[in-house]
Design a protein that fits this description.
The structure holds 2 protein chains of 2 kinds. Chain A is an all-alpha fold. Chain A has one domain: ABC transporter involved in vitamin B12 uptake, BtuC (Orthogonal Bundle). Chain A is built from 14 helices and no strands. Chain B has one domain. In chain B, 72% of the residues lie in helices and 4% in strands. Chain B is built from 12 helices and 4 strands, in the order H-H-H-H-H-E-E-E-H-H-H-H-E-H-H-H. Classes of the chains: A mainly alpha, B mainly alpha. At the A-B interface, helix 5, helix 11 and helix 13 of A face helix 5, helix 10 and helix 12 of B.
Chain lengths: 310, 299
Amino acid sequence: MEKGFFKSKGMIWGLIGLIILFVLPGVLPRFYIYLTSIILLTGLLATSLNLVLGYGGIFQFHHAVFYGVGAYATALMIIKSGLTPWLGFIVGPLVSSLLSLIMGIICIRLSKLYFGMLQISLGSLVWIIVYRWYSFTGGDDGIHGVPIPDIISSPTSAYYFTLIITLLCFIVMYKIIKSPFGSALQGIRDNPVRSEMIGINVKRHQLLALVIAGFFAGIAGSLFVVVDNTVFPDMLFWTLSLEILIMCLLGGWFSFLGPMLGAAIIIVLRTFISTFTSYWTLVLGILMMFVIFFLPNGVLGYIEEKLKKG
Amino acid sequence: MDFIGAIFSPKLLSQIFVGLSRTTILFTVSSGMTLILGVLRIPNVAHGSLYMIGAFTAYTTSMVFGGGNLGFWMSLIIAPLVVALVSLISERGLFQFLYEREHLMLLLLTFAFSLVFGDLVKIIWGAEYKSVPVPPAFQGYVYLMGGLPFPLYNFFLLLVGPLVAVGLWLFVNKTKIGKIARAAAVDREMVGAVGINVSWVFASVFVIGCLLAGLGGALVAPTVSVTLGMDHTLIMETFLIVIMGGLGNIWGALLGALIFGLAQSLGILIWPQFGIVFPYAAVIVVLLLRPTGLLKSTW
């Protein structure tokens, strides 16, 4: 429907956005390059959640666990294995998707809210293990100063690395959504019973979607290691998961780029509000209440609505 | 004989009692959550924050009344009432407009509340640890079989658990509002159609559920250090207990709390560093065998 209208205009805006993103390191100070990298990889994380949440209708309440596990797997692989660091970037996402598969198999038999509540609890179990296993994960200190290959270790090159990987992931995710598999997934979201009737294996589709989402979340985690060189247990704490959910909601979860926009808004707000007050979470909570009441389709959903009317 | 001696060792016995007194706290909080889930269908993430507010209010109350027995009993009354008031305001102010929306929105709204409450607690009470004195009446130890010392306050908790359970049972089964609430859990439109003001029934169930969280906070206050972040671990445990017992089933919450409390206290005995993993493992086993919980869910 809105696709025909958006396609040509959207392409132009997309191109302009890309050019801005590519020349950004030339004009911005170092801190803002770092911030933009964080926005990009958090946006990737939020979009991977939206793959199962917005398009799949699965209540994945604790998505951050795959982000954190991806980051930990990457960091541990680099530090402990002694093999080439690049291997870590492959292992991280793979471990995440494996974990996603295991958790998916346990949870998938349950219906919506049960699924979400069990998933958030299992995720907390993973958090506890990471938090307590001092000898392996560093406990609540996390791991600092993970050695990164020289080519991508400076802030600018880390930024470009993040940008390119994020772009590639976005293209792949977009293709997945537009593929027959993506259509089947959205069909399941809208009417699981009917989808089952026409011969779609509902559980298997949902499980595959979970694994894919876990994989991309793992990539986001690996990128965090590149940008920040650290991992810490808060990366897989459940409050972060709910923050990602807010990003999806704020940006709009029926639009592909909504979660990215939501991530950008939240991170920019957090950075600037934190300089004025230490009560950022209070502001976030109030902001969320406003969004839930007045912008149930998110910022992007609101804009699309206005455009359609106007 | 050595084997049997090892099983019934005093250490094991005392861990069982520790687990049972923990069960009381867990049950008090999760019964409130399961009540709200069963009737209103809200997965209340703010429940843990209300528990925290209960604990902090108990601290202030016992300080105001001088930390003695009077302070303790007053805190058991005032803390739940303060929490009930807070929840009444949030229910009437915001939640009641969202009952028709998706669970996800309700969950996120409760999360927004937990963020706001967390910072409000920080503003009001500050970020330092607070400790609530054990009331003089419950200081000291009782001696269990074999002369094993067991803190008197934990013994008191063991007695409170059944009291809460019976009180809640009476409320749900014997009072008019409890009966209406049970009916509304099954078919809220029909309850509205026979001329009952469902909105206020929902409000009272919400408030009572939250009151239980506050009571849990007041009860736990003398045994732990009251601190920011005490809501974070508890809310996950509550979630697990509620799922394990069957959403909305109060006896399920009791059973879940029992399994959880015992698995935790005995797990520490088996593997000190990862004792906390055992209750989670117990939940996974239960849910693999019975995906919708041990007892019948109201959903």
